[in-house]
Amino acid sequence: MIKNWLFRIFVIGLLLLQAACTPIEKTPAAPLQIAPVDLFAGEAQKFKPFLGLMSGAVQVKYRGEGDVLRIDLEVWEDGKLSHSLGSSDYMLKQQEGDNQFDGEAIFSVQSLPDQAQPANKTSYQVTTAFTSESGFTSTKLEWTVDAKQVASSTIELKEEKALQEGERVAVWGMQATDENAIHVVELTPESLQQTKWALIVFLSVTNNE
Fold first, then answer.
1. Distance CA 120, CA 148 (A)
2. Percent of the chain as helix, strand, coil, to the nearest 5
3. Which residue from 32, 69, 72, 172 puts its CA 20 to 30 A from 140's CA?
4. Which candidate, 148, 173, 144, places its Cα nearest to that of 55?
5. Are 187 and 155 in contact (CB under 8 A)?
6. Are strands 135-145 and 197-206 parallel, antiparallel or unpaired?
7. Can you tell me the distance from the alpha carbon of 198 to that of 79, in angstroms, rounded to the nearest whole number?
8. For residues 199 and 71, what is the distance between their CA atoms, to the nearest angstrom?
């Protein structure tokens, strides 16, 4: 009886020891890391007059097999997705066997001068850019809204995002209205239902096929 009891203790101890020695498989880190960043922090404050108040940025780090960092621009009207405004790409460069990027994505939305504004509409110049120590690329598009707008605000990323290949996420936005009040919204479909007009920036990594 005592031998059986001792044998059971031995077996249980052996199983516990084996479990303790078994390596724990860690979930691989997501290849695309995105984090909020203050575009006008410190000395960068001097660039605000050139980029305008409706500007922002996110920090972007990537290491993986994707070929292209992509920005997609979506236009929302009356709380619903209306259409795509366009996209811009940054060709990733290979380092140490992987395609890599360590830099920022920057966005700016500026009203065109009064003399360039169409009647009863509001036109914006939308600029997007990828920048890093190895270089930069930028794209400019025009966005016209069928109303004279009186208020606008940015929609900022609140927390870090980690994405796998093939995923995309909203990282910044700008909303506008022709009314005297504007809602504080976040980068979620539920919150964007409160917007009159909005331009939403999505970020992803794709393969250039």
1. 6
2. 20, 50, 30
3. 32
4. 173
5. yes
6. unpaired
7. 8
8. 12
Q: Measured between alpha carbons, how far is residue 116 from residues 50, 85, 108, 111, 144 in Å?
A: 18, 20, 18, 9, 11
**C-alpha to C-alpha distances, 199 to 16, 64, 96, 139, 161, nearest whole angstrom:** 56, 29, 37, 15, 20
Residues in the chain: 209
Evaluate whether 192 touches 185 at the Cβ level (below 8 Å). yes
Percent of the chain with pLDDT over 90: 51
pLDDT tens-digit profile of 84-131? 999 999 988 877 678 899 999 999 999 888 777 778 888 999 999 999
What is residue 167's DSSP assignment?
Answer: -
How far is residue 162 CA from its own chain's centroid? Answer: 10
Torsion region of 52: left, alpha or beta (phi above 0 gives left; psi -120 to 50 gives alpha): left
Place of tokens 């920090």: 59
Q: How confident is the model at residue 209 (pLDDT cuts 50, 70, 90)?
A: low
Residues 6+ apart with CB under 8 A from 177: 149, 150, 151, 152, 195, 196, 197
Taking the C-alpha atoms of residue 39 and residue 170, their distance in angstroms, rounded to an integer, is: 17
